[in-house]
Write a structure and sequence with these properties.
globular, Peroxisomal Thiolase, Chain A, domain 1, 2 domains, 10 helices, five-stranded mixed β-sheet, four-stranded mixed β-sheet, binds oxa(dethia)-CoA, about 325 residues, alpha/beta, about 25% strand
Length: about 325
């Protein structure tokens, strides 16, 4: 029988391009208003890459920051998984480009497609490789150049998204620490509610997606907490997908988790799809909002439709693993 090891996030990093596009800027592009965007979404501004920037370009500084915070070298990475809907190319994978750019010469590489839930899917996939001792160190990256796949004449979608990347280093951690439970789900019958045709732009039935998002994310959080035997009151920090403040508030209310224990940064970045939750987690860590022993819950939702939740007991880093 294979011994299953506890696996945790031992380092995080993120990077967003410097160029800011405000709601006021977008008012000049489509028939919208700063007030509508803030009231209906909570978003004030988003980051936009230069035309030549790729998903791997954004993923590299995020990955290097994650490696630095974990205190490991690129050569120690066994596996790179990149979650993205905006890959540099159809192939090679964006993971291969990041591998080359950071010098992670030993790593196996592949990409995962699960839209905005991509980081959750990639995190669980990486966990399984380490839990079974196939690998010791995995780099999980969520990176997006959403600006490249938006119809900048469609006010229903172009106000919502932004560019950026986040990364996490996974390693074995002490027993009862790290990822305690994960729940992933999908409903392909609802694929047409939110899609990105090859070579095209994002299309979304916002109102319908909103309802499914709230319900499935709540169910996913309840499921992982239940599986891990952890109460909602014990959640130190909820890191939800950063799509819409009204979705996050509805979740918090139904889950009975007060806003002080929910991390929100969508006002600065909009929806960064697969980059969303890992950028938020990295910011939370760097702001000192996550301490050893804390219960952190990540929950995401996106095209597919897909959803996923993960409950983590933070910390438990093994010195001998470094
Ligand atoms: O990350 C993947 C998951 N995605 C999501 O979770 C997104 C989920 N959906 C949402 O966040 C919201 O549904 C939106 C922000 C997309 C839209 O908000 P809403 O409150 O559901 O608005 P709505 O689609 O019901 O539209 C209300 C009105 C419509 O006008 P009428 O038909 O009432 O005259 C829209 O045409 O708002 C109009 N509208 C806008 N007005 C100004 C839609 N977009 C805009 C806009 N500016 N940008």
């Amino acid at each position: 029988m294979i011994a299953i090891r506890s696996v945790g996030i031992v380092g995080t990093g993120s990077f967003v391009p410097p160029s800011i596009l405000t709601n006021i800027d977008i008012e000049k592009m489509v028939d919208t208003s700063n007030q509508w965007i803030i009231e209906r979404t909570g978003i004030c501004e988003r980051r936009i890459s230069s035309p030549e920037t790729t998903a791997s370009d954004l993923g590299v500084p995020a990955s290097l920051a994650a490696l630095q915070s974990a205190g490991i070298n690129p050569e120690e990475i066994d596996l790179i998984i990149v979650a993205t809907s905006t890959p540099d190319m159809t192939f090679p994978s964006t993971a291969c480009f990041i591998q080359n750019k950071i010098g992670a010469s030993r790593a196996a590489c592949f990409d995962i497609s699960a839209a905005c839930t991509g980081f959750s899917y990639a995190l669980e996939t990486g966990r399984q490789f380490i839990a079974t001792s196939t690998y010791k160190t995995a780099l999980i990256v969520g990176t997006e150049v959403m600006s490249r796949v938006l119809d900048w004449t469609d006010r229903n979608t172009c106000v919502l998204f932004g560019d950026g990347a986040g990364a996490a280093v996974l390693q074995p951690v002490a027993d009862n620490y790290g990822i305690l439970s994960t729940s992933l789900g999908a409903d392909g019958r609802l694929a047409s509610m939110l899609d990105l045709p090859a070579g095209g732009c994002i299309r979304m039935s916002g109102r319908e997606v909103f309802k499914v998002a709230v319900n499935t994310m709540i169910e996913a959080v309840e499921k992982v907490l239940n599986n891990a035997g952890i109460s909602q009151e014990a959640v130190s920090l909820l890191i939800p997908h950063q799509a819409n403040i009204r979705i996050i508030e509805a979740m918090g209310k139904r889950l009975n988790i007060p806003s002080e224990r929910i991390f929100v940064n969508l006002q600065k970045y909009g929806n960064v799809s697969a980059g969303s939750t890992i950028i938020a987690l990295d910011e939370a860590v760097r702001q000192g909002r996550v301490a050893d022993g804390d219960i952190v819950v990540i929950v995401a939702f996106g095209g597919g439709l897909t959803w996923g939740a993960t409950v983590i007991r933070w910390g438990g880093v093994l010195i001998s693993e470094k």
